[in-house]
UniProtKB/TrEMBL annotation:
It is found in: Cell outer membrane. Keywords: Cell outer membrane, Ion transport, Membrane, Receptor, Signal, TonB box, Transmembrane, Transmembrane beta strand, Transport. Belongs to the TonB-dependent receptor family. It holds the Pfam family TonB_dep_Rec_b-barrel. Residues 202-637 form the TonB-dependent receptor-like beta-barrel domain. Residues 26-138 form the TonB-dependent receptor plug domain. This is TonB-dependent receptor. It comes from Sphingomonas limnosediminicola. The keyword Repressor does not apply.
């Protein structure tokens, strides 16, 4: 939840030397949630995906967290646009796109929230300066860059342990920031007690990440930012043959000019490699057997951007620039296991590239502000391939080589703000956006349990049109906002059910009895309209606040997928609300957050219902000395069942049960 606790005065001067340009004036026309550094410190969870869930309307593809869920199910979206594990929101860290280059999901353990100074969530599509992909909105993370030393160690339920540290070292006119975190735990059994069998067991995890960033003033008005990151994420899914491992590294260089001509130039590189083993569980969940092994999924992302803000009259701002991103990746897989041995191998992947230019202008005619921007992008997919062969004889079963294809697509957004006085403000905005299919969606078929989903190399980019209007009130210690919106996502990519086992199906082969055959397809549209509200009151160290998201989302489809006309998109609730109360006074603090999510469906046909869930999280801290705190945290304090999935055999997967933490924090 934004601003759940007010910031405490720092004990000593803090100098932030981050290199980013100031927030663009145009952003004020859109619905924005800010998560401050103080709120991050006071969150009941140290996992970024769980922290973001406190903002109503922010939705992961599945309810599972980043310790128990499959890494490829960790996409993020907003405003009930649904998805198929690929993110429909654009996630950025210091200006660098963060989704996996091959699949579009997010490696949440790569981020330590305590290493961030702020998270900014801009709802709505059409991000002009950040590049394509922001169908549902943009989530921007900003790294800490300050002198000092901090850290924390925690012990928790099920033999869990965490440790993290941050050091900011002065280097002349700059700061070298070093941070790292590591955690491990015994995990919980993902399948509920009533539906599990002998094959089900605890799902342990362990992961670490490290980050080094150097911010340095190389001239009076020019700053340099150099960043390097590394991550390792190992987890299981609670059965034999369900280990998943992700390794990754990132690097970026950014130069920023803060003079009369403001400008920013960024170049970055990303590398990820996923290993994922998939298991099938037999009747009665008595035994698990391996069905496929992605022994390596290497992927790379390379890109850059440039933005220029020329000198303008005081009531105007102009931004112009360009950016590009090229992603490559390939899934290397063994499958069709018989008696524990693979009989076939598969290679699937390709190259995707986007490049575009943008311009955005904002003019202030007090008390009215007008803003508008647009960009044009060229997209291209090449070297698409899906190769399958028998291991024993090397006989080729499939060798699809897809022709290079591409096109041009626009992005645009515009808004108006009217300041009415007395603390009231009206705003309205409209936007166009688009998202390119990921290499995973285009070229790789996959299986989950008994279900199989075929790839589709002919997928078209998704395109969004949206509009919103809102009223805001901010006066004294009270803030209230109300926003209504409509979105239409055309050519939405969905996993479309086309058949049921037993039988052989194109692109996936044999599907057993009880299993479902699906293919990724562009359906006509997803139509969404909804209402968002937020309120906040603060006084002294006390704060109360709440937020809610009410949406009506429906699939629209004709032709072969006409049976999908009318259902709610899979994994999409129609109501979410959060209310929190907190107190903070120089480290003496407490916070309670109640979160409710309505029912949603596991599948596109709306036959597998995941019940509504209400959870309570809590945080408390007490100073032992001016710099040392004892902290206690509780996730899902009342131990409520949060259904995360329903498998073809009827077994129910759950999200995080009650988890308690106690730790020491050096600030």
């Amino acid at each position: 939840m934004p601003n759940a606790l007010p910031p405490s005065p720092p004990a000593a001067e803090i100098v932030v030397t981050g290199a980013a340009l100031p927030e663009a004036r145009a952003e004020s026309a859109y619905s924005i949630n800010l998560i401050s550094g103080r709120e991050i410190e006071s969150s009941p969870s140290h996992a970024l995906d769980q922290l973001l869930k406190d903002v109503p309307g922010v939705q992961l593809f599945r309810r599972s967290d980043s310790h128990s869920g499959h890494p490829t199910s960790q996409g993020v979206t907003l405003r009930a646009l649904g998805g198929n594990a690929s993110s429909r929101a654009l996630l950025m860290l210091d200006g660098v796109p963060q989704t996996d280059p091959f699949g579009g999901w997010v490696n949440w353990p790569a981020y330590d929230p305590l290493g961030l100074r702020q998270i900014r969530i801009v709802r709505g599509g059409g991000s002009v300066a950040n590049g394509p992909g922001a169908l549902a909105g943009t989530i921007e993370m900003f790294s800490r860059s300050e002198r000092g030393l901090s850290g924390e160690v925690d012990a928790g339920s099920r033999t869990s342990a965490e440790g993290r540290a941050y050091a900011g070292i002065a280097t002349g006119d700059g700061v070298l920031s070093l941070s790292g975190r590591a955690e491990r735990g015994g995990g919980f059994v993902p399948i509920t007690e009533a539906t599990r069998g002998p094959a089900d067991r605890h799902a342990p995890y362990r992961d670490w990440s490290a980050r080094a960033q150097w911010n340095y003033r190389i001239a009076a008005d020019i700053k340099l930012q150099v960043s390097a990151d590394g991550l390792h994420d190992w987890r299981t899914r609670g059965t034999d043959f369900s280990i998943n491992r992700t390794n990754g590294a990132d690097g970026s260089v950014r130069l920023v000019g803060h003079g009369r001509w403001q400008w920013s130039a960024l170049a970055y590189w990303q590398w990820r490699n996923l290993m994922s083993s998939f298991a099938s569980v037999g009747p009665g969940r008595a035994i698990a057997t391996r069905v496929s092994l992605q022994y390596s999924v290497p992927s790379n992302g390379v890109g850059g951007s440039f933005e220029l803000r020329p000198p303008m009259p005081k009531n105007m701002e102009l931004r112009i620039g360009a950016d590009t991103r090229r992603t490559t990746g390939e899934s290397r897989e063994l499958y069709n296991y018989v008696a524990g041995e693979p009989k076939r191998r598969r290679f699937a992947g390709g190259v995707a590239w986007t490049a575009g230019a943008f311009a955005e202008a904002t003019v202030d005619f007090d008390p009215v502000t007008l803003t508008g921007g647009m960009r044009i992008d060229h997209w291209q997919v090449s070297n698409g391939h899906l190769f399958e062969q028998l291991i024993a004889t090397s006989a080729v079963l499939r060798d699809d080589r897809d022709p290079e294809r591409g096109g041009w697509l626009p992005t645009a957004r515009g808004g108006v703000i009217a300041r009415l006085g007395g603390g009231f403000r009206l705003r309205a905005a409209g936007y166009l956006g688009w998202r390119m299919p990921t290499l995973n969606e285009l070229f790789r078929p996959f299986r989950v349990g008994l279900d199989a989903t075929a790839a589709n190399a002919d997928l078209a980019p998704e395109r969004l049109f949206g509009a919103e209007a809102g009223v805001e009130y901010a006066r004294g210690n009270v803030e209230i906002s109300l926003t209504g919106f409509v979105n239409r996502l055309s050519d939405a990519i969905a996993n479309v059910t086309l058949g049921a086992g037993p039988g052989n199906f194109p692109g996936v082969g044999f599907v057993p009895a009880g299993g479902t055959y699906r293919q990724r397809q562009n359906v006509d549209a997803v139509d969404v309209h909804g209402l968002e509200a937020a309120a906040q009151w603060s006084r002294g160290g006390w704060q109360l606040q709440g937020g809610l998201s009410c949406t009506h989302a429906r699939m629209r489809s004709t032709g072969a997928a006409a049976f999908l006309d009318g259902p709610r998109p899979a994994q999409t609730p129609d109501f979410a609300a959060t209310i929190g109360a907190g107190y903070d006074d120089a480290g003496k603090g407490a916070q309670v957050i109640v979160r409710h999510v309505s029912a949603q469906f596991e599948d596109d046909l709306n036959t597998r219902k995941l019940n509504a869930a209400t959870t309570v999280d809590a945080f408390a801290s007490w100073p032992l000395s001016p710099r040392l705190l004892i902290v206690a945290r509780a996730e899902n304090l009342m131990d409520k069942l949060v259904m995360a999935g329903i498998n073809a055999d009827g077994s129910i997967e759950r999200a995080t049960p009650r988890t308690l933490w106690i730790g020491l924090r050096l600030r």
